[in-house]
Each structure stands twice: as structure tokens, then as C-alpha cells.
Specification:
The protein has about 725 residues and is an alpha+beta fold. The chain has four domains: about 110 residues, PAS domain (Beta-Lactamase); about 90 residues, Beta-Lactamase (2-Layer Sandwich); about 150 residues, Reverse transcriptase/Diguanylate cyclase domain (Alpha-Beta Plaits), CATH 3.30.70.270; about 250 residues, TIM Barrel. The chain contains 26 helices and 29 strands. The radius of gyration is 30 Å and the shape is flat. The chain starts with a helix and ends with a helix. The structure holds ligand C2E and calcium ion (2 copies). One calcium ion binds next to loops. One calcium ion (CA) binds next to β25.
Length: about 725
């Protein structure tokens, strides 16, 4: 018994420290996200305000106008004030004032080329404490000519700090050498904590134990506290989560006291439930059967039912390929710790619902135990499709979660087994997913495949992520243009800009290798803006050399479209090159349109009013909603290659395609068919009334210099 008590205390303490670590990790994630957002805003603003790496703006614009421009951006950002610092140290601010920033780190560091987050400062305006974020501004020759900065109120940052463990635990950011910097406003910890530098705290005699992995036990006013800390990566700041030992003690007490009592209660409850179930079964045997097949937390089927359904599913789809997955939520118990069991159950319900939304009618999902889900999807098993399926599950979960009042940051671990043909019993299939899932957990990686080659893919992505910024600076990303033709007249009517990564070491890389990754890590914003700029430069060159311009379409990713500064950045770039907007077409994929429909409709309305052409891209790859077509009021409908192939294969495919063409026609949309490779496809499209086409039959994507060939041919 004594041994058990000692053992359970040790295990629980370990568990307790792990869970504080996880809370701290979640806090670090949201803390970093806030600063990423600040720097994204500054970078977007830099593009608009200074135009294209030009110092002319500062020389040719009156101070009052600069200040008005800045004010416009301040309104749309979390900054209180924004400013541009000339390289003499004098700043013009959005509030109309002029400041001398000479001697301040945030100016001195940025003018030397570093992005900077300042130490806390007193705001000269509000007397509040503020933090200043700055970036250098470069001119055409790559010289720094100014600094752009934003001032952020400490209260904004304070409100992002978490309270955990039912209000007993807190997270705060403290400097190694000075006082607490950011802390939740509702904090109630003793003032020693509030005003002590981390170094002092850590070195003090009050530390009674140090664990591996940045955890200490600290004594204060005879109270013990567990402190888990991690460097934030900004200045010398450390993020710490502090939880009193009383939380651990009360858990231990509960466990000890509760064991005997719980056993008796469970026995009693068990007998009651069995009696009740037998009674129910006798009375409503059908209803009981149905209920026992349902998981009450998710409202979905149980594991038993899931396994029963697999064989008939495979039998009806003989020879077809499937993906089997095992997925769990990382550190799910922390959610329970932080928000309680009810919130945890709600999350499981949402996750299940999201998976169901994604897997379609030929897919199955069940919660096997705790937060572990089994999934089967009828799908191709090539690596891109599998990753896309997994990503759409995560995306859908995040979409549903974003509607919740509490904002959760969830991470998942997947064990995936692709089957080109099902040849095994269901239990063996899920043994394999479990095996790779366990491996993923052990190695702390988000996704493990039953194929070694897939594992290599994950490593490849990491390598790409490490080299993308440098590649961008070295101009390795290139704009290629693919021609679009009018089918009947064979007239060149436009071009699509497609990005290529020409790496000196790896050779030419295609978008499917890096775009999905860039969409996840936000780098796509840089690429998309760069492509818009390249398209504008090309059109300007055509105009200047007397060539009749044709519209260039650019792909716009979701992350860019939903950025509040998107519209201004776009307009500014187009105006900088004095490009009539009718020459720029914005391609937005069909799937983005289902989410944020209202926001997007408004944005599209604004873009159209300004004069841009809007194209719905990849129509036919998602739900292919016709209602969407009516609501979105786009100018062009780009029909996905897969749709054309389907129409070639069977009569019903042909009928659907013809219906879509007619509907789009009646809505005055131009219909363009993508991926046309054969004359037969082109003839079929002409017969069905499709007006324009793009594909290898007419021309592959080529560098701008070679594109001139297409222009001269007409
Ligand atoms: P997308 O917008 O649907 O672009 C058309 C893709 O189909 C291009 O692939 C093009 O090379 C390919 N294609 C064109 N004609 C044919 C054909 O006859 N047969 C076949 N099999 N393929 C054809 P690419 O360039 O590899 O681009 C793939 C996707 O990557 C694009 O699909 C687009 O979604 C994305 N992408 C490319 N460039 C950018 C970019 O600058 N920004 C963003 N956000 N996405 C981009
Ligand atoms: Ca496209
Ligand atoms: Ca497309």
C-alpha cells in the first residue's frame, strides 16, 4: 500500500510537470503567433507605404501625408501608433507627432538591418507601458533608408496570457535581467513574482528543487510553486508557467481518498447500469441495439460497429484503394486540465464531426478510446493525395474550432496506412496504423506512414522550410506564364502566372512540392505578392514596348486573401506600375469560397468594383456547388482537369459538364477548361459550348522571355 502511495505520487508529479510543460508550450505558441502577426503587418505595410523598395516615398511625400497613410494602417492593425523613422533618427508617426528615436534600441538595431522587439517602454502619449516592433526598409539598391515601426500596448499582450488550472496557474513573460514584462491582468501571485527578474528567482535560495527540462520548485511565503520556463526567442525574455503545489496535492488527496470509495461506487453503479440495461433491452430491444452502437460523446458509431461496417464497405468497393488512419490529439489531457471535461468532450465531438465532413459517404470514422480516432477513407494513395486528405481533416477541425468561443490550439498525431487494394482483415489494417502511430508518438513527429518513402517526405519538407527564405532573397522563385486560348478562333486571350523554384542545388521544383507547405507556414503571402509584382512588371514592359497587353492571372492563396491589408497592398502594387486593373485576373480556388463566404463576397465585390477580373479556379475539384456560382459573381469559371477527364469517360459526366457550361453562360461567365492535352478534348469542349482553354496542347508554362513566342504567333 505504502509502495503504491509512493509510486502514485511520483507518477502523478511527473504527469503534473508534463502537463505544466504542455500548458507552457501552448502559451509560447500563441505568444509567438502574436509577434509573427505584428511583423507580417509591418512587412505588408512596408510594401504599400514605400512602394517597391523605393526610398522616393520619403523624399517626395509631405510629412502630413505620410502620417495620414500610416494612420490608415494603424486602424487595421493591433498597433496603437505606427511610425517611419528616417535614417537621422527622426520619426513621423501616425498620430501626427514627430519623435526623436536616436539612442533607442528599436531604432538603432533596425537601422543596422535587424527586425527588433523593444524592451518595455513608457508611451509618451498614454503613459501606458508599450513595446515597439521595428523592421528596416530597403531601397532599390538594397540599402536601408528608413525604419518602419509599430507601438503595441502591453495590455494587448497581457490579455493573451493564459490562466490555467482553474485560476491557480499563470503564465508570464519575464526578462532574465529585469522585471516581469507581460502577465495576465487578473494575476494574483505574490508581488515577489511580479517584480523579480528571472535570474534572481532562479538563483535564489527559495529554489528547493531543480528538475530536468527547465522546471523548478520554488518556495514563497511557505508555499511551494512549480515553475516551468522556456526562452521566448525575443530579447532575453523567458516565458514561465507557475502552478502552486496545492493543485498537485489536491489531486493526490483525491486519488487516495477516492480509490476505495470509487471502487464501491463503481461497483454499485455497474450493478445499477446492468440492471437498467437489461430492463431497457427487454423493453426496447431495437432502440437499445442502436444506442449501444453509438458513442455518446461524439454521437458517432462505436469501435465495434466501425469494425463491423468495414468488411461490407471493402466488399462493395473491391479493388479500390483506401487510406486507413489512426489519429489522436496531442496532450489532450491538458485540454481537460485547462478547460474541464465538458470542454474536452465538446472538442471530441467537434473533431469527430470535422472528420465526418471530410471523409465523404464512402468513409468511416469512430472514436476508439479517449481521444483516439480510427478513420478509413476511399481515396487514391499517392503521397500528395494522402497529405491533402490529412490536411483537409486538420483544416476542417480548425475551421469548426474557430467558431468556438474558446480558441484552442490543437496538434494531432497521425499513423497512416495507404492500401492500393484491401487484402487484409480490418483488425490487421488497424494494427498497422497503430504501429506507425505509436512510432510517430515516440519520435514526436506529427505524422508517420506505413511507407518509409513517406517518412523521407517529411524530412524533405523540413529541409525546404529551412531554405525558403534564403531562396527568396536569392531570387530563386521565377514567374512562368502559361497561355490561354479562345477555342474557336485560336486567339491568345491571356496567361496564367505559375511559380517555379529554380534551386541551384536541387534543380527546378514544382509548386506541388512547396505550395502546400508554404500555405501552412504563411510563406505563401510572400510568394503571391511577389507573383503579383512580377505580373505587373511584365504588363508594364509590354505597354512600354508597344505590345498589346493580355490579362495575366495570378493565384491567390487563402492566407493572403483573408489578410486585412490584402486589398490595399494589391491596389498599391497595381498603381505603382500604373497597370489598368482589367489586365490582372485573380484566381481564387473553389474550395476557399465555401469558407468565409460573406467576407469573401464582400472582398470580391470590392475587387471587381476596382476593375480586377475574378476567376473561380479548379471548379470541379471540390463540391462544385452551382449555388456558389450564382452568389460569387465571378467573371471566369476555370473547370478543373479532372472534370474534363470525367466528361470524356462517360455520358453522365458529359451531361454534368454541359449543364455547368450552360449555367455559367447564363450567368455571363467566361468558361475556361484547364489541362487540355488532346485535340479530342478540345473538340468535345467546343461542342459543349466552352469558350476558352489552357493546357499542354496549346502551350506549357514557360519563362516570360519565351512567352513572347506565343504573342508573336498571333
Ligand atoms: P492551378 O492553378 O490549377 O494551375 C494549373 C496547373 O496545371 C499548373 O501546374 C500547370 O502547369 C498544370 N497544367 C497546365 N496545363 C496542363 C495540362 O495540359 N496537363 C497537365 N497534366 N497539367 C497541366 P503547376 O504549375 O504545377 O501548379 C500547380 C498548382 O500550384 C496550381 O494549380 C496552383 O494551385 C498552385 N500554384 C502555382 N503557382 C502558384 C502561385 O504563385 N501562388 C499560389 N498561391 N499557388 C500557385
Ligand atoms: Ca490557377
Ligand atoms: Ca486550376
Amino acid at each position: 500500500m505504502l509502495w503504491f502511495a509512493g509510486y502514485s505520487r511520483k507518477a502523478l508529479t511527473e504527469n503534473f510537470i508534463n502537463s505544466i510543460n504542455e500548458v507552457n508550450r501552448q502559451q509560447l505558441f500563441s505568444f509567438k503567433r502574436i509577434f509573427d502577426l505584428q511583423f507580417n503587418t509591418l512587412e505588408l505595410c512596408a510594401r504599400v507605404i514605400t512602394g517597391l523598395n523605393s526610398s522616393d516615398y520619403l523624399n517626395t511625400t509631405a510629412d502630413s501625408e505620410i502620417s495620414e497613410d500610416l494612420d490608415l494602417f494603424t486602424e487595421k492593425s493591433p498597433f496603437e501608433v505606427m511610425f517611419i523613422n528616417r535614417n537621422n533618427g527622426i520619426a513621423i508617426a501616425s498620430d501626427g507627432d514627430v519623435y526623436d528615436n536616436n539612442g533607442y534600441d528599436f531604432y538603432e538595431n533596425a537601422i543596422q538591418g535587424d527586425n527588433c522587439v523593444s524592451q518595455p517602454l513608457k508611451s509618451p502619449i498614454s503613459d501606458d507601458t508599450v513595446i515597439v516592433c521595428t523592421i528596416p526598409l530597403y531601397d532599390k539598391l538594397g540599402q536601408i533608408f528608413a525604419v518602419l515601426g509599430g507601438v503595441i500596448n502591453i495590455n494587448y499582450l497581457n490579455s493573451a496570457m493564459m490562466v490555467s488550472y482553474d485560476g491557480h496557474g499563470y503564465s508570464l513573460v519575464t526578462s532574465k535581467t529585469s522585471n516581469t514584462i507581460i502577465a495576465h491582468t487578473a494575476n494574483t501571485w505574490p508581488s515577489e513574482f511580479e517584480n523579480a527578474s528571472f535570474i534572481n528567482l532562479y538563483a535564489s535560495n527559495n529554489v528547493i528543487k531543480r528538475f530536468n527540462g527547465n522546471c523548478i520548485i520554488y518556495r514563497l511565503h511557505d508555499l511551494l510553486r512549480y515553475v516551468v520556463y522556456v526562452p521566448t526567442g525575443y530579447n532575453d525574455w523567458v516565458l514561465a508557467t507557475i502552478v502552486p503545489e496545492s493543485v498537485l496535492k489536491s489531486r493526490l488527496k483525491q486519488i487516495r481518498k477516492g480509490t476505495a470509495f470509487t471502487f464501491l461506487m463503481n461497483l454499485f453503479a455497474f450493478v445499477c447500469i446492468i440492471t437498467f440495461l437489461v430492463f431497457l433491452q427487454a423493453k426496447h430491444s431495437n432502440e437499445f441495439a442502436r444506442a449501444s452502437n453509438l458513442d455518446t460523446v461524439t454521437n458517432g458509431i462505436t469501435l465495434k460497429r466501425f469494425m463491423e461496417k468495414l468488411n461490407p464497405l471493402f466488399k462493395n468497393n473491391r479493388g479500390k484503394s483506401f487510406i486507413a488512419m489512426c489519429m489522436d490529439i496531442n496532450e489532450f489531457r491538458v485540454i481537460n486540465e485547462l478547460y474541464g471535461f465538458q470542454a474536452g468532450n465538446r472538442l471530441l465531438y467537434i473533431v469527430h464531426k470535422a472528420v465526418k465532413n471530410v471523409i465523404g459517404i464512402d468513409g468511416l470514422v469512430c472514436r476508439s478510446a479517449n481521444d483516439l480516432f480510427y478513420i478509413i477513407i476511399k481515396s487514391d494513395t499517392d503521397k500528395n493525395t494522402i497529405i491533402a486528405e490529412k490536411d483537409s481533416i486538420i483544416e476542417e477541425i480548425n475551421r469548426l474550432l474557430s467558431k468556438e468561443s474558446t480558441q484552442y490550439v490543437l496538434n494531432f498525431t497521425f499513423g497512416i496506412y495507404p492500401m492500393q487494394k484491401v487484402t487484409e482483415e480490418p483488425v490487421h489494417i488497424f494494427e498497422k496504423t497503430n504501429q506507425v502511430h505509436n512510432r510517430a508518438k515516440k519520435n514526436n513527429i506529427p505524422c508517420e506512414f506505413y511507407l518509409q518513402s513517406e517518412h523521407e517526405q517529411v524530412i524533405r519538407q523540413k529541409l525546404i522550410e529551412n531554405s525558403m527564405q534564403e531562396a527568396f532573397e536569392n531570387c530563386e522563385f521565377k514567374m512562368f506564364l502559361q497561355p490561354k486560348f479562345e477555342l474557336l478562333s485560336k486567339r491568345l486571350v491571356g496567361a496564367e502566372a505559375l511559380v517555379r523554384w529554380e534551386s541551384p542545388t536541387e534543380g527546378k521544383r514544382y509548386p506541388c512540392d512547396f505550395i502546400p507547405l508554404f500555405e501552412k507556414n504563411g510563406f505563401i503571402i510572400k510568394i503571391d505578392l511577389y507573383m503579383i509584382e512580377k505580373a505587373c512588371q511584365t504588363i508594364r514592359r509590354w505597354i512600354d514596348s508597344g505590345i498589346e497587353p493580355i490579362p495575366i492571372s495570378v493565384n491567390q492563396s487563402k492566407v493572403l486573401l483573408l489578410n486585412p491589408l490584402y486589398y490595399d497592398v494589391l491596389i498599391n502594387t497595381v498603381e505603382n506600375y500604373r497597370i489598368p486593373p482589367k489586365y490582372i485576373e485573380l484566381e481564387i480556388t473553389e474550395t476557399i469560397m465555401y469558407e468565409n463566404t460573406k467576407v469573401l463576397n464582400e472582398l470580391i465585390g470590392k475587387l471587381k468594383n476596382y476593375g480586377f477580373r475574378i476567376a473561380v479556379d479548379d471548379f470541379g475539384s471540390g463540391y462544385s456547388s452551382l449555388v456558389l456560382l450564382r452568389d460569387i459573381k465571378a467573371d471566369v469559371l476555370k473547370i478543373d482537369k479532372a472534370f474534363i477527364t470525367r466528361a470524356e469517360d462517360d455520358v453522365s459526366g458529359k451531361k454534368i459538364l454541359s449543364g455547368i457550361i450552360q449555367l455559367a453562360d447564363s450567368l455571363n461567365m467566361i468558361i475556361l477548361a484547364e489541362g487540355i492535352e488532346t485535340n479530342e478534348q478540345a473538340d468535345l469542349l467546343i461542342r459543349l459550348g466552352c469558350r476558352e482553354a489552357q493546357g499542354f496542347l496549346f502551350g506549357k508554362p514557360v519563362p516570360e522571355e519565351s512567352f513572347v513566342r506565343f504573342q508573336q504567333a498571333v
